[in-house]
Every structure is written in C-alpha cells, then in structure tokens.
Amino acid sequence: MKNILFVAVLFVSTTIMAQKAKVTKGDWSALKGISVYNLEFDYSNLEIPKYDSEEEFLKDKMAKREEKEVGGGEKFKNSWFADREDRYEPKFIESFNKRWKNNEVSVGKNMGAEYTLKIHTTFLYPGYNVGVMRQNAKLEATISLVKSDNPDTVLFSVNYTKVEGYGAMGNDYNSGYRISEAYAKLGKEFAANIRKKAK
Fold first, then answer.
1. pTM recorded for the entire structure
2. Dist CA 53 CA 59 (whole Å)
3. CATH number at residue 165
4. Measured distance CA(71)–CA(50) in Å, rounded
5. At residue 19, what are phi and psi to the nearest 5 degrees?
6. From the CB of residue 48, how many other CB atoms can be counted at a distance below 10 Å?
7. Tens of pLDDT along the chain (199 residues)?
8. Own/partner pairs for 152-158, CB < 8 Å, 24+ apart?
9. How many domains does the chain have?
10. Residue 83 and residue 177: Cα distance in Å, rounded?
C-alpha cells in the first residue's frame, strides 16, 4: 500500500512540475522534413518575478553583492549576461542535438540554414540554493519558426511554460548552472515534440 501511495505522489508531483507546450500559430507539421535549423536567441522584455523589470532586478542584486565585496555587483552583472552565450545557448543546442542519434535533425547558431528558430525567453526565475533551502530555476519561452530570408513571417510558434532546471542531487549553488539546466530541458522537450508531432 505504501509503495502504491509513493508512486501516486511521485506521479502527481511530476505532473505538476511538467512543462507545458501550447501552439499559438500554425501546427507541428510545419517542421516536418526540416533537418537543419539556424538559432536566434532573444532575451528582450524579460520578466523576472518580484521585479518590474530586468534592470530593477540587476540593480537590486548588484547592490547586495557590492555590500559584501567591492566589485561584486559588476561581476554579477557581467556574469548574468555572459551566461547566455556561455551557458544557456550551448546547453539548449547540446541537449536538442543529442536527441537525434543519427543527426536526422540539428540546430546551431550561424548555420546558414533555410529555416530559423527564434527562441524568445519571456520569463526567467534564477531560483536559489542556500544549502538547507533551494528552489529550481524556471523559464518560459516562445519558439517561432521562420524562413531565414523572411524573418518577419512566422510559420509556427509554440509557448513553453513551467520549464525547470536543477542540478543532480541538489548540487546547483550557481544560478547560471541552474538556469542552463532549464535550457537543456527546453531543448530536450522541443526535440521530443518534433519527433512525436511533426508528421
């Protein structure tokens, strides 16, 4: 009985935490037969919980770090932006591409491909880990398909919500690492949706 209860609780927890994908334009068949995608990442108008803007978030976090260490605020700001190209984007690309054992489909930046996927991160929560307490990173993003030579015409668009990132065994004290794992999850789920639905 206890085992059944445990499995039920695990199932409910997994369902609650599961990311959601909602198509807002076109359908998955628009991606059928495309083997290579160029990627463009967009972080404009980023929503961060408890803050009116990304600028307000940075101002607050920089001030707190500056109190602890001179130069700590600027170091945090530089890392916040550098992590996009150094951590998040490579994680998404790696996670997506490794889902295709025979390289049937691949993504990358500056691929010169006929089609481009625009990945617009609209919501980002870095989470935290202070040892005795922790929260997963969370993100929401819109992935849109366009022809590379006609980027203003969206052929397909899907919104992902409740995408969470965390390190194995809770060993994720760095916010950039936690967020990068959310991008890995986004890449994994997007690849899985293409495989299942782009028919």
1. 0.88
2. 10
3. 3.40.50
4. 25
5. -70, 155
6. 18
7. 444 444 343 333 333 456 799 999 999 999 999 999 999 999 999 999 999 999 999 999 999 999 999 999 999 999 999 999 999 999 999 999 999 999 999 999 999 999 999 999 999 999 998 888 889 999 999 999 999 999 999 999 999 999 999 987 677 788 899 999 999 999 999 999 999 999 8
8. 154/25, 154/26, 155/25, 155/26, 155/30, 156/23, 156/25, 156/26, 156/27, 156/28, 156/30, 156/31, 157/23, 157/24, 157/25, 157/26, 158/21, 158/22, 158/23, 158/24, 158/190, 158/193
9. 1
10. 9
At 145, the amino acid letter reads L
Q: Where are the alpha helices (DSSP H) in 49-174?
A: 54-68, 72-83, 89-97
Tokens, residue 139: 């993100």
Q: And the tokens for 154?
A: 């969206």
Residue 68 falls inside a structural domain:
yes
Structural domain of residue 80, as residue ranges?
A: 20-197
